[in-house]
C-alpha cells in the first residue's frame, strides 16, 4: 500500500471513530420556554430603575467582604460602591496583579471624587479560578490576615465562544472558571464564614453567586452529563452559548444547594443573581457586529452593582432565591431547582475539588 493511501485510510478511520463518538453521545435536551422565562428576558432588556441603592446599605464597619474578579466590569463597580458607601474591609481575589492594583488605584480616585471618601480599605490577593492549585494558597494568605469573613461575592467569570479552551485541570474553561474553581474557594472559606455568621444577626452573612439569564441556554437539568466538557457534542451557532449557559445554571444550583448542605450555616443567606444585560468585558469574545449591537441594547455596568448589592444587603432576599436587574426577585428555570439535579452537581463538584482541599 502506498504511503498516500495509508495516510488516507488512517484519516478515514480517525473520522469514523470521531463520528462514532458523536453518534453514541446523546444530544443535549432543552426544556420548552415558559411565560416566566420570557418575562425574565424582557426584564433584562427593559428593566426598571434600581430602588435599593447606596442610601439603603448598612455601614459594614468592622466587616470583611470578599469579591472575586473585582478589578473589572460589574465587580469593579461593586467594589467602588462598597468602598464609597460602606466602611467594609474589601478583598479582591483575581489573577492579574498589575491590572488589579491599577484598578484599586482608579477606584480610590473615583471614590474620592464621587463619594468624598479617601483611602478606602481595599486589598488584593492573587488567585486564578482556572487553576485549582492557586486557590488554597490564596485562602491561606487571606486567613493569615483576617479572623472574620462576612460576605462572599462570587463575581469572577468568563464567557468564551466558541467552546474549546480548557482550564489547567482540563475542564471546559467556563465550567472550570465559573463553577469548579468557585466551588473549591467556597469550601475553603466555609469555616471562617460560618464562624463569623454566629457573631452576626441572622441574614447579615451572605454568599452571592453571579449567574445570568443565560442559564436558559443550559441543557435540561442544568448539565450535559453525557459530555460535560462538550468535547464530542456538535454545537451549532444557535447553541454556541450553551457552555456559558451551563456554567450559569450551575451557579444557581450551587446557591440553592449550599444551605441544604450546611446546617451550621443556617444564619447565612445564599442566593444568585443575574446582574442585568450589561455592556461589560464578558462580551469581548463576541464578533464586531455583536459588540456594536450590544453597545446599543445593553445597560451600563454600574447598574449591575445594584443587583449584586441588593442580594448582599436587602432584607427582602431569601435563602436560595434568584434576583434580576436591578434588584428584582425572580425565579430560575424550574428544572434547576430540583434537589436530585442539584445534589448530582454538588457531588460531582465535591469529588472534583477534594484533591485540592
UniProtKB/TrEMBL annotation:
Belongs to the short-chain dehydrogenases/reductases (SDR) family. Keywords: NADP, Oxidoreductase. It comes from the Eukaryota. Pfam families: adh_short. SUPFAM superfamilies: NAD(P)-binding Rossmann-fold domains. GO terms for molecular function: oxidoreductase activity. PANTHER family: RETINOL DEHYDROGENASE, SHORT-CHAIN DEHYDROGENASE-RELATED. This is Uncharacterized protein. Signal peptide: none annotated. It comes from Spathaspora passalidarum (strain NRRL Y-27907 / 11-Y1).
